[in-house]
Every structure is written in structure tokens, then in C-alpha cells.
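Q: Here's a chain of 480 amino acids. Please give me its 3D structure as C-alpha cells.
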Amino acid sequence: MKKINGIIMQYFEWYLDCKQNLWNNIAQNAQELSDIGITALWLPPAYKGIGGKDEVGYGVYDLYDLGEFDQKGTIKTKYGSKQEYIDCITALNQAGIEAYADIVLNHKMGADMLQTIPATKVDWGNHNIEVSKQENIKVATKFTFPGRKGKYSDFDWNWTHFDGIDYNNETGEHAIFKFKDKDWSNAVDEEFGNYDYLMGADIDFKNPEVIEECISWGKWYVETTGIDGFRLDAVKHISADFYKNWVKEVRKVCDEELFAVGEYWSGDVSKLHRYITETEGQISLFDVPLHYNLYNASRDPNFNMSQIFEHTLVKENPCKAVTFVDNHDTQPGQSLQSFVEEWFKQIAYSLILLRSDGYPCVFYGDFYGIPHDNVKPVKDLETIISLRKEKAYGAQHDYFDDSHCIGWTLEGDDAHISSGLAVILTNSSSTNKRMYVGEIHSNEKFIDALGNSNNEVIIDEQGYGIFPVNEKSVSIWVSA
């Protein structure tokens, strides 16, 4: 479960060149990550995908093949072997870091055989509207996993376990085909009329055999790997009832409650609230509305910074909010590209890492850079992470009283020596703000831990200081 002042790191980006050796690299870096303040790692999907050794992980083929069987042209996945994955999780746990597995259940790709079945085309813009008569199509829906030969599970997938697909192998036509006697789930997002269908062979989560197999696999996965939690992919495309029950059932095999965070990609916070209610609070969600606020603020010089947390999950339901700046989908060139501008990154990470609300997630591409797109690491991000671990404690006081310059302070507590800090940031010209850090800091000298300001601030007898910030910058003031 989430640790006090915990920080997740998403330990991959889309173009990561790890030479099938990521699990070993993580094991080697585990203690170093723990020392700076990382308490959990979101690991990429660990099972065999349609792309073999080059598969990022979302084109799922065989959930039971964690880099153990010769399938899709490789034994290891892009990230390593099954044993290396398990050893990686062990090394993380020994360093005091939890391991969260990326769970992708929405679809399958790379079937072993084709099947001919009746189906009806639906409209791309509204999946509820049928646009053709029923026709026979040839589709990739028969999964037998010949390389695994029934080990761990003898369940073979066929077209009855899916409700749709987007390709007719007979004609080469790309369209969304809904299978005979199938209906889209009603408990999904309303985008495109109904957003049950996303990609690949879309799994039918109303099928009792599918439900049973997915629960059985989930329990096997937890028992086999020893993971501490889940990142659930594409939850807005899957029945909320399914995931509510799946999480409950899989948690039964653990002594401690597994953490679960879902990716419900919507900038509308009301949809996130609804999903949390529908899943009975079993699942936290990534704060997508906050991501878009950060992205928009980085691109709009007139963005009202006092409203940066308005209509976000972290403001309205902080206990269920996993905050983030960017991820593998928002990075340049990807499907949800909305990459926060470089000048704003320090500000954005200060907003998610140095406040009392939310469970922040740091993106690998921001920490290490993205060579594919010449994206450099965020300057002093390691320092900001360490400040959360060492300083960000105690009562919080907000100063969101200006459209361009905002700030807040944390007084610190007795359990953490020299803890407490003051954060001030602006998307406009240099300025300052008088803020209260607590009488316990009276007469102390504060300096900017980022070095963005060379000033020194002396805290007065009442516990206040006048904290400066440079143009379009952030300063994090701590006791010298």
C-alpha cells in the first residue's frame, strides 16, 4: 500500500532501447532509486505481445508468457525473461520499493489461427450505429499458444470470447465489426456513442468463461510474481462491474491489499468520479484533468495559475488521485501527445511532488530523457523528489491568490529533522510573496534548493518570510 510521501516512478517510455535487459537494469538501480525517495515502480507490461522483442506491451498476445516460451520470434520479452522479472520485483522489495504491474486485459492481438464468423459493421463515429447487413468475415480470433503447450492454463480463446475486431483478413478491409449475437458493454465511456471497442480482438467481459479465466490468471500472476499492485490499462473501455469484481477476487490471494490505479483517459473529472463510484472505490485513477491543466498552462501565457487544481481529481477526491505530469502516451509522437513544455516541467513537478494531496507519479522520460526525440531530463528533478522525502511534511498553507504567481508552504514536523519548505512559482514576471512557514522556523535562513534564486530569506518572529521567484520559474525554499 501507499507509503507516507510515497512516489511512483513509471519506469519506461515508448521508445526505450533496453536490449531485452530492463528487468536486470532495474534490479541494479533499485537501491539508488529508493535512496532518492522512489517508493513504487510502475513496470511495463511483462507478457508476450504481437511485436515480440520489440513489443512495448500493449499489443497483448499471451498473458501467461512472461518471457518463458518461444513465441512471436523470441523467448524473452522486450524487457527480459520471466525469472529476471521476478528477480527484479524481489530486488525492488528488498530496497523498500513496491512493484506495480501494468495489466492490459482489454484486447488480444496476434492470433494463431483465423476464424470465419458472421459480423456487422458499425460506424467509426458512433459504435452504436450499424452500417451494414450481417456478413461473413475472416478474423484473427483463435488463440492456442502453441509455444506454451497448455502450461499454466489450457484455455484457448476463440471468437465467442470477443465481441468485435477492426480487420477482415479475407478482404483487407479496416472497419469496426461487431460479432453476431454480441452487444457492446453499457458500463463504458460514452465517447463514440459507446467506447467498448478500442483495438485488436476486443474481449467480451460479459462472457462467463472470460471472467473466470481472467480472474484465474490474475491470481496466478500475483502468486507467481509477488507484485504489490496494478496499473490497469484502458479501464474506460471495460465494464466497471468487471474490474470491480476482478480486483476484489485477485486481492483475496494476498495478505496485504494490493494497490490499484486505473487509466481512465478523460479530462472530465465527473467521469472519473462516476467510475470510482461504480467500482466502489476499489480503484484509484490517474488525474488526467490535472495533466491537461499542466499542459495548457505550459502553452498559454495567460493561464490563471490560481485555477491550476480546479476540476481535478486531486482537489475533489485526493485519496483516489494519482497525479502525473506526462507518460508514455502523452510523450511526443504518441496517441495522446500532450507533452508539457520544457520550461514548465519544474513547476509541474513541484505542483505534484511537494503538496500533501495525491499520490504522484514521475515519468521515466522526464527523469532520464527521451533520446528518440532529443528530450533532455528535467533539470533537478531528482532534487525535487528528494525534497518530498526529506522536507514535505506538516501543516500546509496555500497562497493561490494571484493569477500568475502562486505558492504554498509546509511547516514540517518533529519526526523529520529540518523539514518544512516554501514553494513559489510564476508563469509571468519575477515577483515575491509573503508566506507563513511556522514560528518554529523563526530567525532561520532559507535558501532555494533548486538554485533558481540566489537570494536568502530570513524567517521573522511570526514565522513569515518574503520569498522571491524569477520570471517563469519556481523556487523551493528550505532551511539552510
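Q: Can you summarize the key feature?
A: The longest helix spans residues 208-225.
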